[in-house]
Request: fold
Amino acid sequence: MAIARPIRMLGAACILLCLFLVFQMRQDSPRSTSKLVHGMTKDPLLDPTGEPEGELWRAEDHDYSPDSEKTARTNAAIISLVRNEELGDLIHTMQDLERTWNHKFNYPYIFFNDQPFSEEFKRQTQAITKAKCQYELVPEAHWGVPDWINMDLFRVSAQMLEEENIQYASKISYHQMCRWNSGMFYKHPALEKYRYYWRIEPKVQFFCNVDYDVFRYMEDRNKTYGFTINLYDAPQTIKTLWPETRKFLAANPSYLSENNMWEWITDDQARPEHTKGGSGYSTCHFWSNFEIGDMDFFRGEKYEAYFQHLDRAGGFFYERWGDAPVHSLGVGLFADSNNVHWFRDIGYNHIPYYNCPNSPKCSGCTPGKFFAGADFLAKEDCRPTYFKYVGTH
Ligand SMILES: Nc1nc2c(ncn2[C@@H]2O[C@H](COP(=O)(O)OP(=O)(O)O)[C@@H](O)[C@H]2O)c(=O)[nH]1
Ligand SMILES: [Mg+2]
Reply:
């Protein structure tokens, strides 16, 4: 029996529609977007991600109201070094963090700047949150270029880095910012009474609802440092950071933690050229635009002595040492790696990299997607060696 032409057409259209839907589903599936690099066979972010195990502090069970006298908040603050001109981008960051987390817990914000904050900056930021906002000037003694830095040498070195296409090489404020974040922020008087901090930056994004007090989590589990993204650095910016670090370790061998991250720091298998460029340092680091940390660690004897050594060596200016590799080497060498935590459940983006878990609490990012942009960015992912040598905790 012949089938009428319109019915045949309808049948064909249905088949085409089904094929299209199957194709779309494959496009959206987490598995099709994750690029496995450096020997990683499976991305843990594609496994369903829940909350950390054990007891967690929740806003429903405790008093987290903004002005409570008997608050359940621990001594912690959200901090940001930021410029007045970045107000618009900072607002977006704050809106994301408030929506996903802080409207429940009302931790205070402390903003830092080398210039006075404008009234407009203060008005607009405070308008976004019920939590207390504080605005602090960075003292010149913490921000200024130290007197042992030779500015002629800085200019010549910066010129050489510029020729290697290193971004911000000649921008002195960028060097000052990296130095301040490396060894000064936790000395600011406004942070004296606080132990834990969560660093935020303008223009970053948060994707997942986090329903527990992350600072209490840090405290209860004795965590020193929490991160989301683990990356390679540009070796040209830190040519002598590892040699200086080795010198410091040689003079202070007892500072090395028994349970350190040496193999992650010195891996020369995944990217041999990087490790060579980093004079023996893999350049792997925690991306410090996101960090949740214990300032008692940074204020402690070991890290502080390490920072002083690096500061005297001059690489914050003669090279372009970033606070990310400096914090990471400090944490990786002097902390116990069991006390370092991957906040895999905090969906996060700082252009161009992501931490996006597979969880119903998240929206707006693709689980397992590590980068947005050109394919070469995939190899900047240092999680494979971290997972291999340190773990996925
Ligand atoms: N107040 C102030 N903040 C700065 C300065 N330079 C950088 N920052 C802040 O430091 C952080 C890192 O700077 P950013 O430009 O994002 O560096 P990138 O992420 O390495 O490209 C951001 O929160 C900036 O707002 C500066 O000269 N003054
Ligand atoms: Mg940034």
